[in-house]
Amino acid sequence: APAPEDLELARGLREAMRGAPLSTATLVSQMIEYTEAGDDEGAPPLAAAPTLANLVESLIGIPIAETTAALHVMAILLTDEVMAARIRRELAGRKHPMPIDVAELASLRITRAVTMTIPGDVGEDLMLELTGPGVRDVTLMTYVDFRGGPFLKDAFLMPSSLEQAKAQMREIAERDGFAPDYPEVSLADARARLEAAMATYGSLEHMLEPQEMWPGLRPLLRFLLAHLPTGGYGYPGDAGIPMDLDDVGLDPLDEEFEEEVHDLAHAFLAAYLGSEEAEAIGDDDLIHDVAHEFAAIIVGEDEQYSWETIDIERVMTRVLPPLMPAELKEYCRAPEVLQAFVRHCHAVAGVEEAVDFRVGMEIARWVPDYLRMREDPGVVAIRNALETAALAADSIGLSYEDPAVEILGSVEALATLDDEPLPDEPLDVSGVPADIVERVSRMSALADGAIARLYDDVELRTAARRLIAKVAAGDPAIFRRKSGDEMGAAALVWLVAKANDQIGESWTLTVGELMDHFGLKGSPSQRAQPMLAAIGGSTDYDGRVRLADPLLLTSETRAELLDWFGDPH
């Protein structure tokens, strides 16, 4: 048998003890996290013990320096006071010298907190400065996702001071055209926010993929928060941001991804709605919603639209149960739509019949589990969070309004709607604050150049000029922030083009081509969100931009609306 010092457990702890400050605390926090639940799936190799009690007994039974270090950390981080007392009795008889950050871990504290905010983001980075004996220049980074919670999506340690971490994050953000702010957060507020976000994560956890260090850092963060002042203010309500269930744990979808999801879902709906299968289900809205969820999953997983059995398990056990209505008849319909959607994808991809059959059998195999999860407490909690988030949608402009209100700003605007061409109109800055006129004019000129080169459309140019003037009057702060003019102009063009159905994979111009014109990468959609909010606009569940003003729509768009709503004249 190998000597105790040669065991994998001891080697890993030894490496951590020789590493950067808090390396041992990080490793042991992960060991606690993955054994407290009695489930070692996804745990690091060192946490392979089936239960926390067994792990503690193993460490006590090997009296070497490495296990002494682990026990020191456990005595501080464990919430089981009986087990912690057992560890302290064992430590009283051990005399191994310890690194100071291990020996004095009980003195580790959060001494400062700031949040990094970026306009249009769906969450925030809460950055925590850590100070303690043997610990300096360490920042605990946390990311709280506001969708459906808010919940703590990620946490990790940066070997940098808080000021260094802010500078690094600022550099990354500015490369993407953003100028982040770093407002201070009181320690009491930091505690209130993060404890609530951790609790919400607990109800979502079974649906989320673990991050590299989260939830492994949960025991360490729990200890640190317990030593902060109480009485702070958490996040208001649900943070007001609706959650697309498939988007939980993912970065915001970029524009090209959205277009592909939209096209695939609508191709399926065009073929499926009206079929005998669809008639049997009888709820077009339900079919529409789940089709978009399925499309988002497969577009993200496989560019050939080929479903794998692991995709089916994820959909049947994570995505669908909380997404579907609790009413039994409606809840039971989703697997039928999934079967039809998979067949459609495989027909498009030319997948072999044997593969299609195997995936179909996998759907059938998971149906009993899916049905049992309808009233699971965790599923019910997430379903309720989704419903609450939908009710709060107005706070970020995701709209469930009457279409006339979404598109035109009011039902009354229908009475005066016409299809006359927009005039060739100069930029009007009469309502723009004087200190931002120069920047608004510069950004408008960049947008003019893009429209002239990419569209050669006078109406679209006038719409863009009207839009930027309206945004500047509605929220002048947008133009006072440090950010790239090119990205702002790209966002402006994207908004008017999107609202007038003039951009995307199905149209003559793609988002990539728009960004190429400005020499930029990525998508302008995030930069566009504050502009949209400034004018009271919205984005509907299909990703369509609604500017809530007929004066920002081209004659072609308004003519289509007259056909759709019916000519009121």
Give the topology.
Blueprint lengths: L7 H10 L5 H14 L15 H9 L4 H13 L3 H11 L8 H4 L5 E8 L6 E10 L2 E11 L5 E8 L3 H14 L11 H18 L13 H9 L28 H18 L3 H6 L2 H18 L7 H15 L4 H4 L2 H16 L3 H20 L4 H15 L11 H6 L28 H18 L3 H17 L10 H15 L11 H8 L6 H10 L3 E2 L5 E2 L8 H11 L4
Helix pairs in contact: 1-4, 2-4, 4-5, 8-9, 10-12, 12-13, 12-15, 13-16, 15-16, 19-20, 19-21, 20-21, 21-22, 21-23
Task: Name the features.
two-stranded antiparallel ribbon, 24 helices, 4 domains, single chain, 569 residues, globular, four-stranded antiparallel beta sheet
Report on this structure.
The chain is of the alpha+beta class and 569 residues long. The chain folds into 4 domains: 102 residues, no CATH class; 119 residues, no CATH class; 148 residues, no CATH class; 163 residues. Helices cover 53% and strands 7% of the residues. The protein contains 24 helices and 6 strands. Strand 3 and strand 4 form a beta hairpin. It is globular. 42% of the residues are buried. About 8% of the residues have low confidence.
Instruction: Quote the beta fraction.
Output: 5-15%
Q: Give a short account of the largest sheet.
A: 4 strands, antiparallel
Runs in which pLDDT lies below 50 for 5 or more consecutive residues are 38-49, 237-254, 388-402
What structural category do the secondary elements indicate? alpha+beta
Cα gyration radius (Å):
27 Å
The helix/strand order is HHHHHHEEEEHHHHHHHHHHHHHHHHHEEH
- What's the number of extended β-strand segments? 6
Q: Return the domain count.
A: 4
Strands across the major sheet, in which order?
1-2-3-4
- Write down the overall geometry: globular
Instruction: Please give the count of helices.
Output: 24
Quick check: average pLDDT? 80
The N- to C-terminal Cα distance equals 92 Å
Helix content: 40-55%
